[in-house]
Amino acid sequence: MITEADRTLQDFDRDGYTIFRNVIDPALIAEASAHVDWLHARYPDRLGEDLATELVAGDPFWVRLVGDDRLLDIAELFLGPDLALFASHYISKPPFSGKAVLWHQDGAYWPLEPMRVITLWLAVDESTPENGCVRVIPGSHKDDLHELRTRDDVDNVLGSESAVAVDESAAVDLVLSPGDVEVHHPNILHASTANTSPRRRCGLTIRYIPTSTRITSEQQPFTSALLLRGQPGVNVYQPFPQYVPGEHMPFAGA
């Protein structure tokens, strides 16, 4: 008998991505949205695309969110029971603004060996073609990692792109509602446009690894490396932060 989990993994193996609907409840999504506003107020010089990795391990709410059992259960389907966080990053595009993300493969940027990792993209806001949703090329995860080339002729988040011709007619727009989770492979080609709508588009990327994947960065422990489930494996991890009233954003259970 083929289970729903089996079908999900088959879709992922074929296409390089899959979507889980209504994973996170509205109350926690509301806290995540408030967290983005809180981060902007605390770090006013950071753009919506710059709320990233080096902030994670010192932020109790961020750690609570990436360690939610509903997200870890999804990650476990793909990676097994021993799970760590490699990195996490809000990508928040303000109305009529926000930078494009050019076509790229995540794995081309990451110090991981082997490249066994998945991204969970948690929709904090509704994500549509009008406000710059993620677009993917199904099946492109079966290619090796491409070289990168610098792109400074257009305003973009990464400053680079995969050095390969992309047939955009094959692209699929990943339309998500708040609380939905999209999972994608480190080799899949994906991109997003700027936000041309009056609505913010915010998502949280969460990069999970099995604890058998080594973080090869010279910085040990890596700034956002956290042991979230199971055995520690081959890496050194950051300690979990303690909530301090007035220093951290208040949240349920803090």
TrEMBL record:
Record-linked InterPro entries: Oxoglu/Fe-dep_dioxygenase_dom (IPR005123), Phytyl_CoA_dOase-like (IPR008775)
Keywords annotated in UniProt: Iron, Metal-binding, Oxidoreductase
Domain of life: Bacteria
Fe2OG dioxygenase domain mapped to chain residues: 80-210
Family: Belongs to the iron/ascorbate-dependent oxidoreductase family.
Protein name per the record: Fe2OG dioxygenase domain-containing protein
Organism: Nonomuraea rosea
